[in-house]
Amino acid sequence: MVPAEWYLILAAAVFCIGVFGLLTRQNALLFLMSVELMLNAANINLAAFSYYWGNVTGQTFGLFVMALAAAEVAVGIGIILVLYRNFSAVDVTDATTMRW
Amino acid sequence: MVVYPDWAALAPALALAVTGLVLLLIDSVDPDDSRPGLLAGTAVVGTLVSLGYAGWFLASGTGQVDGGTGAISLYRDALVVDGMALFFQAVFAVVTALVCIASYDYLKERAYQAEFYSLVMFAATGMAVMATANSLATAFIALELASLPSYALVAFLKHNRGSVEASLKYFLIGALSSAVFAFGISLVYAATGSLLLADVASALSALDGGLTGVAAIGVLMVAGGFAFKTASVPFHFWAPEAYEGAPAPISAFLSSASKAAGFAVLFRVFTTAFPLDAAGVDWMLLFQVLAVVTMTLGNFAAATQETVKRMLAYSSIGHAGYALIGLAAWSGGAPGSVENGAVLGASMAHLLVYGFMNTGAFLFVALAEQWDVGRTFEDYAGLGSRAPMASVAMTVFMFSLAGVPPFGGFFSKLFLFAGAVDAGFWWLAAVGVVNSTLSLYYYSRVVKALWVDDPVGEFELGGTPTGLYVAVVFAAVGTLLLLPGFAPVIETAQSVAAALVP
Amino acid sequence: MAAFDYAPAIVLLPFVSFLVSLGAALYGDDVLPKGGALAGIVATAGSLILSLWVFFTVSAGNVYNQTIYTWTTGAGAAGEEALELTFGLLLDPLSSMMLIIVSLVALLVHVFSLGYMNDEGETGLPRYYAGLGLFSASMLGFVVAHNILMAFMFFELVGLCSFLLIGFWFREPGPPSAAKKAFLVTRFGDYFFLVGVVAIFATFGTGRFAGAESFPVLAEEVLAGEVAVNTFGFAPTTWFTVVGLLVLGGVIGKSAQFPLHTWLPDAMEGPTPVSALIHAATMVAAGVYLVARMYGFYAVSPTALAVIALVGGFTALVAATMGVVKREIKQVLAYSTISQYGYMMLALGAGGYVAATFHLLTHAFFKALLFLGAGSVIIAMHHNENMWDMGGLKDRMPVTYWTFLSGSLALAGIIPFAGFWSKDEVLYEALVHGLGTDGGLGTIFLVAYAFGLLAVFFTGFYTFRMVFLTFHGDARTGQARDPEGVGWNVKGPLAVLGVLAAVTGFVNMTPVADLFDLDIEYLHRWLEGPEGVEFMSALSAHHYLELLESDVTGIHAAELDPLIPGGVSLLLALAGVGLAYALYGRGEPEEYTAKLGGVQDLLYNNYYQDEYQVAIAERVVLPLSRAADKFDQSGVDGVVNGVSSVSLFSGSRVRRVQTGLVSNYAALVTLGLTVLLVAFGIYGGWLL
């Protein structure tokens, strides 16, 4: 059996990859995908420790996280669409009319 | 005596959800929004029903310890209805009702009105469930239910670049925060094997050494998720833009109700699930740091703004800092002592008062947007003589927000700071007082513009939108009535807060 | 049986036509004659022939329930059976009947498309026929699925095809967003379905529909106390209800029931043959079919039945009332489709398994007919769908008119057309079960029945409003005066369906059977299934009735003559038709709905409250504001400026953090979190 720590390390690694993508990408869609990675890092933990603790709480919650991730993407795509209509780009750094 | 089933205790939340569905139904029958009055009326009635239930339950003792049934646990402890939940549900219902009344005029001639109201209702449902969440899972889901409609609502003016930009920033930071939140929950689960708050607490107390770090990182990340919802540093960056760009009623909704919802779930999770001595994080210190940084940053940035709406946005961040004192000074007294309930209750009472005065202030901005007078302080010059009633209301809001004596905001801040001093955190109270003084400067700039300055040019106000007027005046009356009526509010808040603390 | 050996080909033939069209689409537009239509016609004709063969084999008393392919087998814990995920066929009376409906309508729609798409000079035809082929294959695969996971997979595939075909004209503004909406709304329901599928596997360890080890049978045995399954701490009845309602989420999305019905009217942005095939006759039926397929599971949960009946009845009424005011002919049909599927749900919920299946059968034919008829009208009108621009088409397109009239009479439920018999049976079942069942369940059935009965009137009204506006009176535009002609490939399918819409009802004339004491309820007998086959006993209509009348569910039928309720619904339908005739059928029709709106708008314009508010503001508030003016000049300015002048400099620095770049915000959020983590980690002693 794989020790539980490895799952934690894997999840942390996936999470960090997500954060890295978030910080380096300017495309709104890639930004969203990075967030998905971070959410899936949480799912890895949930699934792994669901097994470790022998209850299904984690897995069930993982399903909810997936559903919410999908909902979030749906809303996000909508926002990106109107972003494109107003700024003619999906670059998140283009929208800077408000600051300070 | 009629015996109600336990789930009936969720009536305040259910009323909001049902109203949202009814609005969708109305929209199905009449997709052209040709009955704006019916839509707004339905929404308002729904929120008032919710408010009625919450008020009735609070008065009759449902879910409360003193003379009531005790906290009602539902669905295997996933939700709990107690005094605090009902108190916050009342706050959300009041704010939502005001926002819906005001939206009737704000949305005139705009498409997708039914969608607007139903999104507001669903977001409010999410907030009402947040207040009852007794498990990290329900907390997360309710938080998302409150957030997702909010993103769409901020972008409601979809041909307005500001609205879209606001929504984008809100959404992106929100998505990042929810990812952090979810990961935090997964770490807490990894360490404890449960998501129920009570079970998490007992598992943390019996934690073996190896997992302390995991649990602690989880706790910090969970705090991050709530910091986003309450617009606290360092997750506050979305707030100025989102509040500035969003339609003004939505700014009111987000900065009052949504923020209060964040605090509701923050209070419950941290006081019941993460025991101070076992969580691996001294979260009282954490919230002390966050409270000081948040209120200072919010107030200092607000002081130098040019536009009123953005000033209110930053001031909203500042108020999140004040409300955080409720947790930051939480267990300065002995465990289970009355002081704990005192400071937490004061924080809750402040959120209630804030619900009235901040909503009112943003709705005044909505009124100004409706009149198209401009966005800066200068543009507001001379409004006092043209729209005296609304301007008096705005003056009440501004002074109340600043915490000047004869208004509701004064009392709530007084109890809050007094509670902090009693708990031994006099320096927190001192920082708060200094910040309040600074805030008086920028709030009074609005008052000065309204009554003193001469208008730059000639302009005509386009009519008097009834709904907006009603909402603004009602909020002002609420802020004023909370002065004589503050005693029952603070008593209720402190007793339900004391019941929350083990 | 030889027919069963060839049965997989029913699904594979349209899939091959999909591959052929896909190849053509990738290679270029004009490699295939007719843009790939012929491959599709041949494939669906083949499927139809095989389906008929299967049908006759089943009627000879043979049924089939076999696994064809096992794609994964889990490692079972000690003493438990391993979990198997499989593909397989279940060919019984229900599925063989559905196979014929799907393959026949698919064939006719392929032929019709020659007239609607090819003759109109559309481009991208291989893509269109590839979509139709994949759809036909997935729908047929869904019908024959022998376990719920396989059903779910094909359920998702038909959803995908629906998305692709609604958005066929993707360069126009409407279709892509309609396609997206249809996809997202149905996906929302499907998410619950997915959770339900997982729950079924977790509870029973199998997803089979039929056989001794199938989940409906297991559920029955659990409730009888014979076996035990993991119900996750709930009482078995509660848990089965929860699971049933989760699956129902998918059903409500796919069959466009309230509140997930919103996607269907938008889906009319797609080509009309697609609307006929997918959004009227087959895919939308998938939800109802799924409930019928696992009816044994629902039959033991009174709560789930009540929900189904109530949702169905409510949808039937609400959608029918919405159909009354629409201007576009396809919009009327879309709402009518929602409404008719509401009837089927009502029947299923109220214990009328046969009635629901019957209405599914008749509706598939007459609604496909109406959509194709509308398509014919739309061709004639050069793609103008507004009924107010039509009128008087009766004489200029007689074939379309007479077939459309046959479909309309069936939809409105006029004797002796197909819709009368099936709708009457639906309402009769709801009524007798409502009267015969005790307590709240019976009341709910009666409420749902009332909804359904009221909807009959609206159905008659909107149907004939549509007929009168489109075909009767004088032509209201130049196009209507000189419509474009349609070819045999349009008239042929219309004629076939027109006959079917008139006669299908004769397979199950319950009132006539009762009146003359004849044994002519063929569909009833058909759904009883053959005797002597072991697994069929749990799938027969007879068995479902036993389940409903068991102590667990407690639904009973009252004794009632079918003639009186049948007469009432017929009278209501005729009243609706009559009203439509009175309003729209004579001379020049007027837009009554516009008048209605004007009266109501007037009511909302009462604004006398404004005046007195202004009065209060001027007399009371103005003096107060003058006082405040003085206070400000003497006090506020000086004090405040003194306190805060130092702070302003730092304030102007602090606000620079808010750069306006959301990427910077993300970085600062991350940085802030990291600083907190490191600081508290060192302070708390668990880091370093």
UniProtKB/TrEMBL annotation, chain A:
Keywords, sorted A to Z: Membrane, Transmembrane, Transmembrane helix, Transport
Localization (cell): Membrane
Domain of life, source organism: Archaea
Key word NADP present: no
Residue stretches in coiled coil: none
Molecular function in Gene Ontology: oxidoreductase activity, acting on NAD(P)H
Transmembrane segments: 6-23, 30-54, 60-84
Keyword NAD: no
Principal location listed in the UniProt entry: membrane
Any single Gene Ontology cellular-component annotation: NADH dehydrogenase complex
GO biological process: ATP synthesis coupled electron transport
Mode of membrane association: Multi-pass membrane protein
Gene3D superfamilies named among the record's database cross-references: 1.10.287.3510
Family the UniProt entry places it in: Belongs to the complex I subunit 4L family.
Name the record gives this protein: NADH dehydrogenase-like complex subunit K
Species: Candidatus Halobonum tyrrellensis G22
UniProtKB/TrEMBL annotation, chain B:
GO molecular function terms listed in the Swiss-Prot or TrEMBL record: NADH dehydrogenase (ubiquinone) activity
Membrane spanning stretches: 6-26, 38-59, 79-104, 116-133, 139-158, 170-191, 211-238, 250-271, 283-304, 311-330, 342-368, 389-412, 424-443, 468-487
Main localization category: membrane
Coiled-coil features, chain-numbered ranges: none
Cellular component terms (Gene Ontology): membrane
Transmembrane among keywords: yes
HAMAP family, A to Z: NDH1_NuoN_1
Protein name (database record): NADH dehydrogenase, subunit N (Ubiquinone)
Species this chain originates from: Candidatus Halobonum tyrrellensis G22
Automatic annotation (TrEMBL), chain C:
Record domain NADH-Ubiquinone oxidoreductase (complex I) chain 5 N-terminal: where: 83-129
GO molecular function, one term: NADH dehydrogenase activity
Gene3D superfamilies, alphabetized: 1.20.5.2700
Domain NADH:quinone oxidoreductase/Mrp antiporter transmembrane: 145-431
Highest taxon listed in the record's lineage: Archaea
Record key words, sorted: Membrane, Transmembrane, Transmembrane helix
The protein's name: Proton-translocating NADH-quinone oxidoreductase subunit L
Species this protein is from: Candidatus Halobonum tyrrellensis G22
